[in-house]
Give the backbone structure.
Amino acid sequence: MALTRAQFAQATAAEERQLRMAHLQRLSYRELTELFSGDPAQAAAWIRSAAEYGMAAAQLRLGRMLLEGTGVAKDTAAAFSWFERAAAQGDAEAMNMAGRCLENGWGTAADPAKAAAQFEASARRGHAWGKYNFANMLFDGRGAPRDRVRALKWYRRAARQGHGRAMNLLGRSLEEGWGCARDPAAAALWYQHSAATGYFRGQYNYAAVLAQHGHAAAAAAWYLRAAEGGDQSIRRAILKALGNVTDPVLCDARARVAALCLEVTANRQRPG
């Protein structure tokens, strides 16, 4: 009995998948890593085959591609499904991404409690983003009882892994006394660490500390870095912080940030 055109195409696709899987099984870990991290459009078929075969790393990669529409058509529901599959295999990064989907309603109904559970599972497996996101849920009381003492512990654990955002929020907690006794000196140190990672809010907070202690030149430099790497909200915050300064260096920084604000606004309003 002759195959229809659709049946022939289906059989051909199945054979191609089997050939790809046979090839994938012969690759070393390094070769697989290079393949999965290569050009998304070229690697998409290989990544999907590996994901269907059950490779957690490929399932995570495919989920990210589907979530962002990189190399494949954007499909947030499918992305969440692949994150769940990889998470079920114990992949900490996939747990964090499943949590992000549940937190924001990407490809699934928003569910803060389930998001917090995924973040906690990721955090307990050592993933820095999982620790940071779980700390945020505890800090705000979203999906878990509000507990700033526990939040501070998870921020600290993520910060010790070099997570710039966690460093900044650890600094804020120490500065304000959220979940701990106030410790301005320790706060300044964590702001400095956060700034060094390139995180613009850490740069802003470190600049504020430097300005408060009379280090105008260093403060101006960090304010400018924050303005260049951040968004309009941080630029407006910098302009407000520098609103009444008289030091020439800080006045110059204020003028440069104001000019950057105008430039960004003009570029956004320009057609095309």
In short: The chain is about 75% helix and 0% strand. The chain has a mean pLDDT of 91.
